[in-house]
Structures are given as C-alpha cells and as structure tokens.
Amino acid sequence: MSGVTRRARAKLNLSLDVLGKRPDGFHELCMVMQSCSLADEVYVESAAPGDFLAQTNRSYIPTGDKNVAVKAARAYFAALGREGGAHMRITKRIPVCAGLGGGSSDAAAVLAALNELNGGALDEAALREAALAAGSDVPFCMLGGTALAEGRGEALTPLPGLPETDVVICMPYFNCSTPELFGRVDARKSRCRPDTAGLLAALEAGDVLGVARRMYNVFEDVLDRRAAKAVQEIKLLLLAGGALGAAMSGSGSAVFGLFPDAESARAAAENAKAVCREVFLAKTE
Ligand code: C5P
C-alpha cells in the first residue's frame, strides 16, 4: 500500500513566557508561535498491527517508542480505538534539541498523514487530543502559521500572520535540557518578561519591526554563563548584521533573527557561521 508524504515545518517562539507550575507537573505557558520554511519531510505508510518504526537520516535518533513520531502514531490508533501500525521515514533538516519543535512537527505530520490514510476517521478535536498526548508543542505544529499558545501550549488562538519575513536560524555549540531550564525558571522570579500584549498589537498592525523588537524568551534569563554568553554573542552578531530583532526559540539552543530582506539575511548567516555549529536561512510561513 502506498503512503503519504507531509512537510513538517519548524516553529519559532516569537515570545515565550512561563506563568507558573501546574498541578500536573507541567508549566502554564504564554507563547507567540510562528512556523517557518525550515522543514523535515515525513513519509508514512500503514504497517501490520503493533508494528511501529520511525527511520531517519540521523543515526542518533531513536527509531522506536522513544521517537515522538512513534508516540504520535500510537496515540492515533489509541484515539481511533483499534489496533494499527505505521512505518515512517523522516528526512530531518530541522536540528534536534533546538527549541524549533522538529520532533513535534514530525509528530503532527504523522497524525495528519495517518488520518489521511484512514479516510479522515478522527475529527479535529480527537486529532488535537492525540497531538497533545504526543507532546505539548504538537497541537501548534498541526495548526501552523502564527498563534498564541497558552496552557501547556495546546490552548491555541490563531493570530494575524506575520508578513513573509526572512529568518536566520543559528545553532550554537551547546545544548539545553528542557526540564532543567523549567526547573531554573521555577527557582527564581523572571527579571525580564516578554511584552506579549504589545507583540499581539504589533501582529494585528502587520508591524514586523514592532514584533521583532518585542521578541523575548524567559529561558534566556536562566541559561548558564557559557550558554548565555554564546546566545548574546549570536544575537549581537545578527543585530549588527541588520536583524530587526533576535531571540532564542523554545528551550533552545537555537537563536534566530528576523530580517528586513533576503540579502541582509544571507550576509548575516554567512557571518554567523564563524560562531555557530549550523546556520539556516528560512522564511516565516
Ligand atoms: O510535552 P513535552 O513532552 O514536549 O514536554 C517536555 C518537557 O518539557 C516536560 O517533561 C516538562 O518537563 C516540560 N514542559 C513543561 N510545561 C509545558 C511543556 C513542557 O514543564 N507546558
């Protein structure tokens, strides 16, 4: 039987605020999310009941239950209430453990593909529930575009889209542990918070500069010294290269900048290579 191919876009956090800890152990978040053109490709085909496998072009990514794509496929059949199986082949381009929602976006693509293969058997609400079972960012990755994400990240309000904007995405030479950063945010009051209301007003007005100037992520405030220095260095480099604004995405370590045009983005990306492990050019979409 033939399968289905889907594009799985990376997400950027135009803002990220942690409002507090919830009784379920997760955190109450308030984030403005934006999808972009940096994307994985996800091919899904049906397999024998109980047979789940996710193969990628990265040897260090697990292929079984530890892979969020497999988690999503299992959540799909659990929601459907019948046994099923899926084989997935994922061409990864989005860096892993970057705060760019690569795994979450693959999971969202798997859910959409399985629903297509099963004749749309799950409705939107059931798909959203299966998405949240796979991970907090999966519901946004299913929706895409520009959205306010609250609660665990699943309470979504679509927002007026950012006009197509050039983005430079930089991967520093360090990784962040998501649970560790959440733990540090708990331990101290954030000194600096994003101006979410101002950001929403700027989006409403289609004011890219107003959006870019308000981008902020509270995790930037709790990085260890070395990581904070690297993030600062990249942000300054992007801003010196003409970025309208720059911030870390999600729980890092990716740092991105919004640019007024493709030319300045390209030049800044070239310069950023000197201090980054990887650099990507993309557009908001
Ligand atoms: O839901 P997901 O598996 O993506 O979350 C990964 C980790 O991030 C969780 O185990 C938790 O430590 C943290 N998290 C959180 N609050 C959220 C989302 C994620 O504490 N709203």
What labels would you give this structure?
single chain; 285 residues; alpha+beta; 7-stranded mixed beta sheet; 4-stranded antiparallel beta sheet; 34% helix; 29% strand; binds cytidine-5'-monophosphate
Give the total of beta strands: 11
Could you estimate the helical fraction of the residues in percent?
25-40%
How far is it from the N-terminal to the C-terminal residue, by CA? 32 Å
> Main beta sheet: strand number and arrangement?
7 strands, mixed
Bound molecules: cytidine-5'-monophosphate
Question: What count of helical segments does DSSP give?
Answer: 9
Please give a structural write-up:
The chain is an alpha+beta fold. It contains nine helices and eleven strands. The strands form two sheets. Strands 1, 2, 3, 4, 5, 6 and 8 form a seven-stranded mixed beta sheet that branches. It has a four-stranded antiparallel beta sheet with strand order 9-10-7-11. β5 and β6 form a beta hairpin. The chain is globular. The two termini are 32 Å apart.
Please sum up the structure shown:
It is an enzyme of class 2 (transferase). The protein is an alpha+beta fold and 285 residues long.
SSE arrangement:
Layout (H helix, E strand, L loop, with lengths): L3 E18 L5 E21 L4 E5 L11 H13 L4 E7 L10 H16 L6 H11 L3 H6 L2 E6 L3 E4 L7 E6 L6 H10 L8 H9 L3 H6 L2 E2 L7 H16 L4 E4 L6 E5 L2 H11 L5 E6 L2
Helix pairs in contact: 1-2, 1-3, 2-3, 8-9
The structure holds cytidine-5'-monophosphate.
Cytidine-5'-monophosphate binds next to strand 2 and helix 5.
